[in-house]
């Protein structure tokens, strides 16, 4: 079997290979032969890849959703320290895809990166399982060292797995074919639905096993799940389409050179640039005037030996990436809110009445099920009802633009935090009313159902914002940097987790370690923190609207200016 590398060779003289415009890339099957649409790619391949992600998400959620419980219980950490550790690990997990994407897009290719990352993932989960059964045979400090080493090995493995699986799945659809282009757009919606199915099963069963049976078993099952994921991925090998790139330049070097040369020529006037571009017959169109300073990279210094020139296409690719930066920054507060689901929301739920029926209490971490259920319920509604309805109103194939989709989710996140703050205020008042302020071990007589609206609304917001972001960051980057685009989207979640950890640390220090984040939540003020996040979210939404007003969509060789309100 021959699997093409990321760099590959140039196109044969006579070949029906599918060509990706602007990327110097061609699509082949697993033997390196021209890809046949009837025998490779499309949904036949996507189902394998979605199946891989479902099992991987099951494994990851089985670890992450109940991590704070393990830290505060088995490892004896305080609630504030445990929340910081969870946020830091979540941050590393979401930022590590930047490294994985670089390796995949520059050297190994997506297929090989997924296989290697899966093997590391399995090793990390295996060691994590071992650390959970060590207390009876070793000291706590050794257990803790092995635990965190294993945990961060999983984070590194995730960096190679996460961006490449999604990008590889989207690669199975030809954006230049009208039918497959429609399927690709739908793929992102159904990908989100499939991905949430794994966490649903984990939250239903694994959290109960971890809380009531054994942490060793609770960590061992995710390890087995990742073995299954790797097997499923390998089974689909013969059906996949692989991308060969004839362009020998490293795409990161090629685009990085644009920024370097533009900085070197920063004193050059615009008129000089336009004169040289006109002489070369490479004047950009009117819609291409955004970030015009980057065209200074096209100037060739007198006496240059050549070989290091930038092309207009390189500049346009650099502009495409730069134009995503304001969007990336504007969505960081949303990621901070997203981080609360598996930390502070869980801690809230742990203090409340979680009985479903006599003798059975839902585990606190399983409250995340309401997020997953709302996503599972809403995605088909979005894809089959919302899109056709809005399409009839706007005339746009997707109903609303990707930026509008993201913005709606950002608006909903503000509502989520307002509701969360009001519910937390009610929970504290109930604790005071029943004399439980100084009895944190007692259950506050307030049903966990009060928390359900904030979970459900956050799930619906995810359908808008997170799914919109992954489509935007896949579609709007150069073709050979699709893994990097997905990693940039994932890094929003990572940096948001770091910012959440930083905010908690700063506020905890400022309030003397017993203020907003006291170990006794009945004396803490999570409601203040939620109001703060609601305010920050409002500022973030305003900045998002400002930056998206003049954003230019780049699809193939066409640049389209879209106003957020259109």
Automatic annotation (TrEMBL):
Q: What UniProt keywords are attached to this protein's entry?
A: Membrane, Phosphoprotein, Transmembrane, Transmembrane helix, Transport
- Molecular function via GO: low-affinity nitrate transmembrane transporter activity
Positions of transmembrane segments: 114-134, 140-158, 188-209, 215-236, 321-345, 365-382, 403-423, 455-474, 486-508, 528-547
Specify the domain of life of the species encoding this protein: Eukaryota
Q: Name one Pfam family in it.
A: PTR2
InterPro entries recorded for this chain?
A: MFS_trans_sf, POT_fam, PTR2_symporter_CS
Q: Does the keyword Iron apply?
A: no
Q: How does it sit in the membrane?
A: Multi-pass membrane protein
Which is a Gene Ontology cellular component entry for this protein? plant-type vacuole membrane
Q: What is its main location?
A: membrane
Q: Where in the cell is it found?
A: Membrane
Protein name per UniProt: Uncharacterized protein
Q: Which family does it belong to?
A: Belongs to the major facilitator superfamily. Phosphate:H(+) symporter (TC 2.A.1.9) family.
A biological-process GO annotation: oligopeptide transport
């Amino acid at each position: 079997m021959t699997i093409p590398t990321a760099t590959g060779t140039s196109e044969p003289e006579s070949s029906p290979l599918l060509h990706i415009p602007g990327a110097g890339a061609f699509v082949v099957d697993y033997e390196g032969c021209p890809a046949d649409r009837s025998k490779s790619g499309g949904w036949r391949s996507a189902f394998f890849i979605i199946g891989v992600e479902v099992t991987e998400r099951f494994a990851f959620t089985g670890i992450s959703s109940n991590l704070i419980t393990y830290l505060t219980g088995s490892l004896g950490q305080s609630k504030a320290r445990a929340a910081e550790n969870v946020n830091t690990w979540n941050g590393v997990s979401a930022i590590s895809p930047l490294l994985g994407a670089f390796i995949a897009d520059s050297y190994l290719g997506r297929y090989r990166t997924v296989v290697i990352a899966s093997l590391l993932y399995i090793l990390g989960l295996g060691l994590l399982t071992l650390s959970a059964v060590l207390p009876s045979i070793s000291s706590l400090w050794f257990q803790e060292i092995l635990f965190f080493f294993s945990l961060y090995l999983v984070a590194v493995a995730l960096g190679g797995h996460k961006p490449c699986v999604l990008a590889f799945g989207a690669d199975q659809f030809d954006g230049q074919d009208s039918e497959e282009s429609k399927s690709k757009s739908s793929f992102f919606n159904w990908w989100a639905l499939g991905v949430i199915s794994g966490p649903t099963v984990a939250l239903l069963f694994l959290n109960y096993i971890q809380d009531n049976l054994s942490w060793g078993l609770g960590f061992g099952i995710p390890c087995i799940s990742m073995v299954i994921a790797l097997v499923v991925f390998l089974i689909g090998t013969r059906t996949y389409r692989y991308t060969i790139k004839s362009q020998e330049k490293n795409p990161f070097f090629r685009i990085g050179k644009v920024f370097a040369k533009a900085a070197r020529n920063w004193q050059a006037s615009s008129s000089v640039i336009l004169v040289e571009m006109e002489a070369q017959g490479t004047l950009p169109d009117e819609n291409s005037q955004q970030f015009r300073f980057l065209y200074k990279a096209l100037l060739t210094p007198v006496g240059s030996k050549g070989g290091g020139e930038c092309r207009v296409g390189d500049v346009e690719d650099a502009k495409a990436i730069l134009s995503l930066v304001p969007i990336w920054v504007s969505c960081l507060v949303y990621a901070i809110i997203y981080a609360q689901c598996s930390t502070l929301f869980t801690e809230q739920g742990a203090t409340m009445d979680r009985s479903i029926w006599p003798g059975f209490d839902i585990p606190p971490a399983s409250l995340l099920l309401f997020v997953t259920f709302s996503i599972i319920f809403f995605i088909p509604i979005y894809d089959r009802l919302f899109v056709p309805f809005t399409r009839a109103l706007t005339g746009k194939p997707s109903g609303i633009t990707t930026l509008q989709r993201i913005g709606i989710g950002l608006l909903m996140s503000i509502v989520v935090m307002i509701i969360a703050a009001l519910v937390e205020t009610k929970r504290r008042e109930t604790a005071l009313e029943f004399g439980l302020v100084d009895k944190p071990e007692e259950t506050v007589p307030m049903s966990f159902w009060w928390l359900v609206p904030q979970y459900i609304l956050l799930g619906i917001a995810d359908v808008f914002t997170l799914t919109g972001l992954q489509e935007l960051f896949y579609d709007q980057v150069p073709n050979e940097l699709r893994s990097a685009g997905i990693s940039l989207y994932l890094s929003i979640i990572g940096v948001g987790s770091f910012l959440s950890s930083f905010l908690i640390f700063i506020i905890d220090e400022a309030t003397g370690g017993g203020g907003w984040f006291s170990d006794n939540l009945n004396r803490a003020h999570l409601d203040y923190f939620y109001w703060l996040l609601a305010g920050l979210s409002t500022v973030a939404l305003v900045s998002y609207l400002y930056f998206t007003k003049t954003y230019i969509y780049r699809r193939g060789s066409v640049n389209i200016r879209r106003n957020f309100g259109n």
